[in-house]
Amino acid sequence: MYTPHTESDVEEMLAVIGAASLDELVRVPDAVALRRPLELPAGLPETELAGRMASYAARNGALGYTSFLGAGAYRHYCPPVVMSLAMRGEFLTAYTPYQAEVSQGYLQAIYEWQTYVSLLTGLALANASVYDGATALAEGAIMAVNATGRRAVLVSKAVHPNYRAVLRTYASGLELEVDELPLAADGTTDLSGLDGKLAGKHYAALVLQSPNFFGCIDSPGAAARKAVEGSGTVLVGVVAEALSLAVLDPPGAWGAAIAVGEAQSFGNPLAYGGPYVGFIATTKEHMRRIPGRLVGRTVDNRGNTAYVLTLQAREQHIRREKATSNICTNQAHCALVATIYLAALGATGLRRAAVLNLERTRLLSERVAGLPGFSRAFAAPVFNEVAIRVPAGLSAARVLSALEDRKILGGVDLCRWYPELADCMLTNATELTSPAEIEALRAALAEIAASAKETVHA
Amino acid sequence: MPSRRPETLIFETGRPGRANAYFANGPAPGELLPGEFLRAALPLPDNSELDVVRHFTRLSQRTFSIDTGFYPLGSCTMKYNPRINEAAAALPGFRDLHPFAPDGLAQGALEVMHELERSLAGLFGMSAFSLNPSAGAHGELAALLIAKAYFRKRGEGSQRTTVIVPDTAHGTNPASAAMVGYKVLSLKSDARGRVGVEDLKAVLGPDTAVCMMTNPNTLGLFEDHIAEISAAVHAAGGLMYYDGANANALMGNARPGDMGFDLMHLNLHKTFSIPHGGGGAGHGPVGVAERLVPYMPVPVVAKDEAGAFHLEFDRPDSIGPMRSFWSNFAHAVRALTYIYANGGEGLTRVSQLAVLNANYVRSQVKEFLETPYDEPCRHEFVASAQALKRETGVRALDIAKALLDRGFHAPTIYFPLLVPECLMIEPTETESKETLDRFVEALREIVATAKADPQSVLDAPVNTVVGRIDETRAARQPDLRWEPPSN
Amino acid sequence: MTQPLGLLYSKEHEWLKLDGEIGTVGITDYAQSALGDIVYVELPRVGAEIVQFAAIGVVESVKAVSDLYTPIGGEVVEVNPVLEADPAAVNRDAFGEGWLFKVKVSDAGEGEKLLGPADYDRLVAEA
């Protein structure tokens, strides 16, 4: 497939090379030669191939359900103009812009991405992307470790559990300590005693996420920020729902020196978990520690504006074992999708989308938490997710299962990561969640609660 | 023909309120949240949809790609990216599936991941693959974390501190090792450009954790002593790691698992035709031998006796997850589509023709450029402009720029570091004989011009939208973003 | 080029000028030329105790990075303030304006491990 060689092409080429056969060219020592055909079915013609892949796609029943799933991956509207531009062959099939003269288009697009991320996070500069929010956090923590020389990180339990798990994976490689801060009753991070915890100058970084995993706004107040500054700890701000940056005070404004997060919400499809796109933004002070690629604007030999990959001496292909990170391939195309999305929506569209998220989530919260027996688990203000406590005697697992029977995916069971929250489910509403869907959820929950009561009394 | 006029930044155009109305208007954020949490301003431009379309269309026209022309970047495998893969990945059943969809409602996606994993295991002779890592370097990191966990479990964690890497290795190899706290020992290649068995044995010891290699190596040469190398590393108690960047050379013909490799990564965006997208997203599955299976990242896609699939997280010896969710799933779809399209015979032929194309180019290029290591190559080969530089002052960099003027992308230059003034050329199997002929002619003509009129090569590129770029200024005065004008 | 007088050299192409107990350190003209346009210099902190021949900083050009090894041990007392904004000074005048840092030398005897001008010239010629 996709190889243009005819038999006569092969013959002519072998003659030029002076080889007798293809077998001769690919021969390997007997000790390692594979002597039997590969155990793969024969290649399919495209007509059958299309059908085969479509049959897999058709077996993902979740698509037929009403979904309130969030928790780090968000269902947002992406205008068709975005993919029609991003999928242009030049963007799709280009490589890393190492030959800058023929890559000015992509380089400029990445420069625009870097600008968008800086503006949205309120920090001086951003890189050309990393794999996703979780790895962005790991890399951000490593930046803080390199900046301070300290080998421990303090992270809130309200940071996305998968992000914390990835942080621990990376930390185990570098033998870094990871300690956690507990939750406060209102759904934010319990920062009491922060002064004492940081005073020992033990921690390289304090990691907070806002909105946090529970959807709660969880940025530190003045006292906490003072404790951070005084102890020389680097404040790392995590944003898993990038759309929140359209309306909420960004990490740069609440004192973070490094902002990390996930930009999947900007035009990238859910795609069962990937590829997504992580971002890292920081202050000028940490510029040389930032991992990954950076695009800079300069001039060419005729004095024209030109873009180029810069500060490459930090990267693996030059610095090798002393590089700031091993990252090579990043998420360029996903960052491009995000950039075009941001360009198309503009400040106006982004703000409107964010406001709709706030409105729908408020509606969901009122309609659902307003049901007898149901309540909001946490009092702190939220962006587009809310943790709902189910009636006593029920578990979130049971309720979610019953919702599934009614073709509704009501959210994620928080018990999965927080055993003390076994009666709570995390529910997300976006601009794509209609009031009718929220009513259907409410009606289903009312029914489930009622029949559970009957069962108890029976 | 792309315009030489500079392209304005998206931030320099636009007016508040000009953007298309994608969403209904609503209340101000201040009516929904307390003011203390709200951002003061959102300094992003509003552009009309038409202006956005023109802007990015023009940017795409200023970007060279596989779709535009020949892209012989050594080590990158710039093969054609089939559009049927895109159609498959765009199916709503895949595109709109949330990662937290219950397993029972994601059986199609889980089966895709399982099928891909089984196919890769068979193709490369490993017991299992994890689709967790996001890129090749990410897969390397996972593999080294697996090695570290394995040795720790055996009580050899503090003893095994060193990773051996040939001097021809890709920079990610030592960088990944450093991210896992390993010391890196760079092994000098022998006169044949390979890892010398005796040289290796001299540095093996109880402190050896992993030996990282690729085969064929970055010079495009098959490491013919690989069986002995693996045996020696295993005898010292170490693990063998295969960097899969050059896997395009050996499908159907030889398998890393059979060569003694215990760990490997693949670059699906190289060997399996996933588009490079300007530098990512990639996909870097990590493969393991039987005894390392327990350490794989989570989750793993498991199949039960009833034939149903689920994501398995409960694996006590796992190194943990490498990323937020389960895989770069859209790429898994693309890769599986490619595997189904080719089948076993097709993939075998892919590697054969990749090797044919590289040798076809090499056997002609060697007439006018030095090709160190005078033997047939695999899927890529290296040429050196060292002699040309001495004679004319024209270097590998200048040849690269001259190729840009003639409508080709340059090969990889200055890698591997072992060869001075290096050009690494990898045509891939999807190029026709005519394209290769035109490339060889262009190179021949550039070398001849270098001798007759070196300045014209040193001035290249002149046909591109910008000329040579002041990289020094870019590094000395970093300008990494547009700044809003201070009012 | 022939080197200025009164300097000692390391094999890693650093120079040392001793003035009483203060040593001034830089990289040689040969080194700056080999590196190309220098874009950034990472220097040790003032007050840092450094050990002879240890890697204590970095010199970065567009395409390469070179570790800086100190030719002499002691306490860092001054770093060249000009280099933050103007790393090109090292290219322009490696032996003068482009000096890197000054050390309060702990053991002047360590200078015996360095090369004299003639030996350094030979090293460069053979490179």
Structure notes:
The complex is a heterotrimer of chains A (458), B (487) and C (127). Chain A has 458 residues and is of the alpha/beta class. Chain A folds into 2 domains: 124 residues, Aspartate Aminotransferase, domain 1, CATH 3.90.1150.10; 262 residues, Aspartate Aminotransferase, domain 2. In chain A, 39% of the residues lie in helices and 14% in strands. Chain A is built from 14 helices and 15 strands. A 7-stranded mixed sheet of chain A has the order 2-8-7-6-5-3-4, with helices on both faces. In chain A, α4 packs antiparallel against α12, α6 runs parallel beside α12 and α7 packs across α8. The longest helix of chain A has 38 residues. Chain A starts with 6 loop residues before the first helix and ends with a helix. The mean pLDDT of chain A is 95. Chain B is of the alpha/beta class. Chain B has 2 domains: 257 residues, Aspartate Aminotransferase, domain 2, CATH 3.40.640; 128 residues, Aspartate Aminotransferase, domain 1. The radius of gyration of chain B is 25 Å and the shape is globular. In chain B, strands 1-7-6-5-4-2-3 form a 7-stranded mixed sheet, with helices on both faces. In chain B, strands 10-12-11 form a 3-stranded antiparallel sheet. A two-stranded antiparallel ribbon of chain B has the order 8-9. The model of chain B has no long low-confidence stretch (mean pLDDT 95). With 127 residues, chain C is of the alpha+beta class. Chain C has one domain: RNA polymerase II/Efflux pump adaptor protein, barrel-sandwich hybrid domain (OB fold (Dihydrolipoamide Acetyltransferase, E2P)), CATH 2.40.50. Chain C contains 3 helices and 9 strands. In chain C, a hairpin with a 3-residue loop joins β6 and β7. The two termini of chain C are 14 Å apart. Chains in contact: A-B, A-C, B-C. Chains B and C meet through α15 of B and loops of C.
